[in-house]
Write a structure and sequence with these properties.
By secondary structure, the protein is an alpha/beta fold. The protein has two domains: 222 residues, 3-Layer(aba) Sandwich (Rossmann fold); 154 residues, Rossmann fold, CATH 3.40.50.2000. 44% of the residues lie in helices and 12% in strands.
């Protein structure tokens, strides 16, 4: 979203970003001079806190609709368009604001399998697992629509009634619209046709990062062969009590040094050996071009950044879109998909052996040359063109 905001501003538009109040988001937007209107509680609180009970999920969804509606209403005053992404209840709240203001609304997702298609299955929703043995994608998406209605419908429709808007029968269609945008690279995350939705694939929205790497990190990189980066971003890795130790041991077993990304799992050094270096917030665009491989959770941003840098990847997927990105990395031959969310020394070593081969490295460099960097520009121009019409 920051990448889109910067490109819109370069084309002469005024932009506000309404995002959760996490310190990371505030610093990011401040760095590029984009106005932030804080929305609701920090994402980090949601991710790292206790998981809601089955009974509590619908209530949490209902509260999120209302909170997001209030925040976006404040942010969107005087605006001509609302572009929304994220959790379904939050997007529903944003769409209600757009309806109320009578302005253009765009829903965007960062991975293809969020959207209904005969070419892939949906990801399982909380409390609504996919039925075993059912392989017909259209049937699975029909069940998915019912799950959307059951999980999110009561809260969304109760809020719409409170603010005087009509209720909706198809929650998924209401949130996604009939012309959603897909902000994913067409090589890394292609949208397959024919499909039922009129999907607009813009390419990934990349915010160029010009920050230099810290002197201490540069010195570490230059002190030996390229290390392996290990970091799991916003994933707390609750299922892995010793994930830092497992990762460091597996990388060392391949004869490599390690750069550990602290992230929301709060990874750190496992001993005082000089073959490990810990980083917090870092310019991944600059760092990933200088490492032998990237071990990560498979978020859309990290996967795209590593692919663009030509770095082989090991994806340890945790949830939602991450299994999709793990599969794409393996299918493209630019790395390995770890089997499951909980790495062991043996399983991670197996994946690293694939990622660190010369063949994988060569393939990663070849694919990097095809990754587009103009997705945010394409999207910004498209949005302004739609508004002018």
């Amino acid at each position: 979203m920051a990448g889109l905001a910067v490109r819109l501003r370069a084309l002469g538009a005024e932009v506000r970003v309404c995002a959760p109040s996490d310190e990371e988001f505030a610093k990011l937007l401040a760095r590029v001079g984009v106005e932030l209107v804080p929305a609701a509680e920090p994402v980090r609180t949601l991710v790292t806190g206790a998981a809601p009970t089955a009974e509590g999920l619908p209530q949490r969804a209902a509260a999120m609709v209302a909170a997001q509606y209030e925040a976006v209403a404040a942010a969107a005053e005087g605006c001509d368009a609302v572009v929304a992404t994220g959790l379904v209840p939050a997007v529903a709240g944003a769409r209600s604001v757009a309806e109320e203001l009578g302005v253009h609304f765009v829903y965007v997702t960062y991975f293809p399998t969020m959207l209904p298609s005969p070419h892939h299955a949906p990801y399982p929703l909380p409390l609504h697992p996919l039925p075993p043995g059912t392989t017909d994608n259209r049937e699975l998406w029909e069940l998915n629509a019912h799950s959307f209605n059951a999980l999110y419908g009561p809260g969304i429709n109760a809020h719409r009634m409170r603010i005087g808007q009509p209720t909706v029968d198809d929650i998924r269609g209401h949130v996604f619209t009939d012309r959603p945008w897909l902000a994913a690279d067409p090589v890394l995350g292609p949208w397959q046709e024919p499909a039922d939705l009129d999907v607009v694939q813009t390419g990934a929205w990349i915010l160029p990062d010009e920050r230099p790497l810290a002197d201490e990190l540069v010195a570490f990189l230059e002190a030996g062969e390229p290390p392996v980066y290990v970091g799991f971003g916003s994933m707390p890795m609750h299922g892995s009590t010793d994930v830092a130790q497992v990762a460091v041991d597996a990388v060392r077993a391949q004869g490599r040094r390690v750069v550990v990304g602290r992230g929301w799992a709060d990874l750190g050094l496992t001993d005082d050996q000089d073959d490990c270096f810990v980083v917090g917030e870092v310019n991944q665009q600059a760092l990933f071009g200088r490492v032998a491989a990237v071990v990560h959770h498979g978020g859309a941003g990290t996967t795209t950044t590593a692919a663009g840098a030509g770095a082989p990847q090991v994806v340890v997927p945790q949830l939602v879109d991450q299994p999709y990105w793990a599969d794409r990395v393996a299918e493209l031959g630019i790395g390995a998909a770890h089997d499951g969310p909980t790495p062991t020394f043996e399983s991670l070593s197996t994946a690293l052996k694939v990622a660190l081969t010369p063949e994988t490295s060569a393939r990663a460099r070849a694919v990097a040359a095809t990754i587009r960097t103009d997705g945010a520009t394409v999207a910004a121009q498209l949005l302004l063109d739609e508004l002018s019409r």
